[in-house]
Design brief:
Layout (H helix, E strand, L loop, with lengths): L8 E6 L9 H10 L3 E4 L6 E4 L3 H4 E3 L20 E4 L6 E3 L19 H10 L6 E2 L6 E2 L11 E3 L2 E5 L6 E3 L1 H10 L5 E6 L9 H9 L1
Antiparallel strand pairs: 1-10, 1-12, 2-3, 3-5, 4-11, 5-10, 6-9, 7-8
The chain binds zinc ion.
The site of zinc ion has 8 residues, from loops.
Amino acid sequence: MSQRLHTGRLVLTPKDPGYLPNDLAAILEKLQSIGLINGEVPGEASRYLLGDRFMQLVTFLGCSPSIQLEPGEADESYCYLAIAGPYQSPHLLYGKNSTPPRCESCRKRITDWRTVIKIWRDSTPNCLTTCPHCGHQQNPISYDWRQSAGSGRLFLLIENIFPQEAIPAPALLDQLCKATGNQPWHYFYQQEEYQTPPSIEAESENMNA
Ligand SMILES: [Zn+2]
């Protein structure tokens, strides 16, 4: 297989990164009933085909895209929904597309965030990072990344969407909110840094070890 950059994914998750939706089945049922998904991809666990209302519930920007909604011959470039989580503690998803987050206190950008995040990940759970500008201490899961990264305990991943290529319609976020006890949801994009990144599950096990 040739080296190929990760196209990207549209990620949906509750706004509160600490909130864990307690009923994944209810969320999937809701997504099925509104036509976002249409059953599992045959032979692929936790992967769902997109449904006949996908193009209404997710708005593609720019000129008419050629979106492939079903698996072709041995390629992974079609759009589908995958689930990441649930995780015992909030997980930070970021990638090549991530831009420096802002400190919640002084609002300055943390330009060296990759180093900050690496130290944070290698540290004890729940440790805080220190803002290089004002010294404010903050848990990076609450950083404001705009739509370039995000944290949560359960993620819906719509795969093979370029950053900013498509946005969820308000109706979709509204339905997710209703399916999770009125918890507001938001979205962001993630473009993996490597072609074959460590799986989210593997990271999760490390974190919980
Ligand atoms: Zn600061």
